[in-house]
Design a protein that fits this description.
The structure holds two protein chains of two kinds.
Chain A (H helix, E strand, L loop, with lengths): L8 H32 L10 H10 L1 H35 L1 H14 L4 H12 L4 H24 L3 H9 L4 H37 L6 H10 L3 H29 L9
Helix pairs in contact in A: 2-10, 3-4, 3-6, 3-8, 3-9, 5-6, 6-8, 7-8, 8-9, 8-10, 9-10
Chain B lengths: L3 E10 L2 E11 L4 E5 L6 H8 L7 E6 L2 E2 L9 E2 L11 H5 L1 H5 L4 H9 L20 H15 L3 E5 L7 H18 L2 E6 L2 H7 L2 E5 L6 E6 L16 H12 L2
Parallel strand pairs in B: 3-8, 3-9, 6-7, 7-8
Antiparallel strand pairs in B: 1-2, 1-4, 4-5, 9-10
Classes of the chains: A mainly alpha, B alpha/beta.
């Protein structure tokens, strides 16, 4: 009567090996090739440093980079939180009120076509060099994927569920809370994962254009003084930060909707 | 047990006359089958009985009370189990009680008390995705029962199951029926299923739908389950097939 996963332990083990080992080996291969070429041609550090040099710079500048990473992280999390809050409010209202959906949907999609690099300087003019303009950029970058995925998740709920709850005289609010919200969560988290990765990029772009602190600032400063190894170290930090946020969202997803992983083949 | 009377119901859906003057009656404790080609508006009929849809003409009486276009008296069970993947089975099944205002804990306890009767004992904490189609339909049936224990409207409840599971579920349904003795309306497009389960069968026509044939089944739900061996089986089956024009 109960469906058990068909994947045996040994199959699972070999799949994990393949999923982790193959990409890892590939990355190591690329890094080794990079290092080899840099040493063979004795390319100067200010043009292209090798991976070993980048790691050395990262370790040497660790306290400074960590400090910059912290401000970038705060901007990301703040912007991310505001974007999620906005998405919930907007998606709920748009789902409940058809007129609002018709009015707002094209606007939301159009907002996504505005290049962030062109509006970010305006935020700096309006709100100064502090964290606020960066947070706004992160909100703008994250809002769209989260709101759209939540909206489509809500819209994709099988109408038969809604009819069943209507026949049991459930109120709209209860139907939303018991049916629509949980059933739209998998789609919502898919959007959340995407924007988690985008959020760091948004913050870095914001800092790039003018800031006192943050990885974007560090990067521009290093670039202007041809300290390419520091630029790469900052890029590495950005990558790690993005991956960490992505993993964080995946972890939260597992905790919030554990049932979604059941029955996965 | 209540009596359901569907009186002169007609309904136009999307400019198409779907139901044209339907009269159907299920007496107290009856097991009534509604048999018809797919797309003939059988589900529309259930939507009207459960109050989700308002008919253009006619009324629905349950125990003499007019419930036309009013939800809350009966719910119905469909081919899809419509269990929420986010809740475990006992939470799913207790939803009608929670919606009626019972505290969640009490509702779960009340629902769990019926698990044995419905062949679900031991599966309280499982999630729908961990169960087979047959078990999920049992849970869906219990949920329907907990909303209105005296009337079961079943819309092709076993149509998505394989033949062997389906037969087991039919035998199970007979056991449940004998225990709780509700008034049942059972939609199906499977002639043999109707002849096996129902006391009386209404055969519906294609759109615009009307009642082609009303026939009493003398051998329904025999304890040994062998309806086909009955001497009248062939003749009644032929009559039903003729009404269905197949």
């Amino acid at each position: 009567m109960i469906t058990r996963p068909v994947v045996s332990v040994s199959m699972k083990k070999s799949r994990i090996t393949a999923d982790i080992f193959i990409p890892l080996a590939f990355i190591i291969l690329i890094l080794a090739g990079w290092e080899y070429i840099v040493r063979l041609r004795s390319i100067p550090d200010w043009l292209l440093p090798g991976p070993a040099q980048i790691v050395r710079t990262l370790v040497d500048n660790a306290p400074l980079i960590i400090k910059h990473t912290q401000s970038t992280l705060i901007e990301c999390l703040a912007g991310f939180a505001v974007a999620i809050l906005f998405s919930f409010i907007v998606a709920f209202l748009m789902d409940e009120i058809a007129l609002l959906r018709k009015a707002l949907y094209p606007l939301i999609v159009a907002s996504q076509t505005i290049p962030i690099v062109s509006v970010a300087p305006l935020f700096i003019i309006w709100f100064g060099y502090g964290m606020l303009p960066k947070i706004i950029v992160v909100v703008l970058v994250c809002f769209f994927p989260v709101a759209i995925s939540l909206l489509s998740g809500l819209a994709a709920v099988d109408n038969d569920y809604l009819e069943l709850f209507r026949s049991m005289q459930a109120s709209r609010l209860k139907t939303f809370r018991m049916v629509k919200l949980p059933l739209s969560m998998p789609s919502f988290f898919a959007g959340l994962r995407i924007s988690a990765a985008y959020s760091v990029m948004g913050a870095v772009i914001g800092e790039w254009l003018g800031a006192k602190q943050g990885l974007g600032t560090y990067m521009t400063l290093a670039q202007r003084s041809f300290q390419i190894d520091r630029v790469f170290a900052a890029i590495l930090a950005v990558t790690v930060l993005s991956a960490a946020l992505f993993l964080l969202v995946s972890l939260v997803e597992r905790l919030v909707i554990p049932w979604n992983r059941l029955g996965e083949k | 047990m209540p009596e359901i009377v569907v009186e002169g119901i007609s309904k136009t859906l999307g400019g198409l006359l779907t139901l044209g003057k339907i009269n159907i009656k299920a007496g107290a404790g009856d097991f009534v089958g509604i048999l018809g080609p797919s797309g003939c508006g059988k589900s529309t009929l259930f939507n009207i009985i459960s109050g989700l849809l308002r008919p253009d003409r006619g009324r629905v009486l349950i125990d003499g009370r007019d419930v036309t276009g009013r939800t809350g008296r009966v719910s119905y069970m469909r081919q899809k189990d419509l269990l929420l993947p986010s809740l475990n089975i006992v939470e799913n099944v207790s939803i009608p009680l929670v919606l009626k205002g019972m505290p969640k804990k009490q509702a779960c306890a009340e629902a769990a008390a019926h698990f044995k009767q419905f062949g679900l004992a031991g599966f309280e904490k499982y999630y729908p995705r961990q169960l087979s189609g047959g078990m999920r339909q049992r849970a869906a049936m219990l949920r329907t029962y907990l909303f209105s224990s005296d009337i079961l409207l079943l819309d092709e409840p076993f149509a998505a199951l394989d033949a062997i599971t389906k037969r087991k579920m039919q035998a199970w349904l007979i056991d449940v029926f004998n225990m709780i003795n509700p008034t049942v309306m059972y939609i199906t497009h499977d002639v043999d299923e109707a002849l096996y389960l129902c006391d009386r069968i209404y055969v519906l026509s294609d759109c615009p739908t009307d009642v082609r044939l009303e026939i009493r089944v003398p051998f329904c739900r025999p304890p040994h389950g062998r309806t086909i061996a009955h001497s009248e089986y062939g003749a009644i089956r032929d009559k039903v097939m003729e009404a269905l024009e197949i």
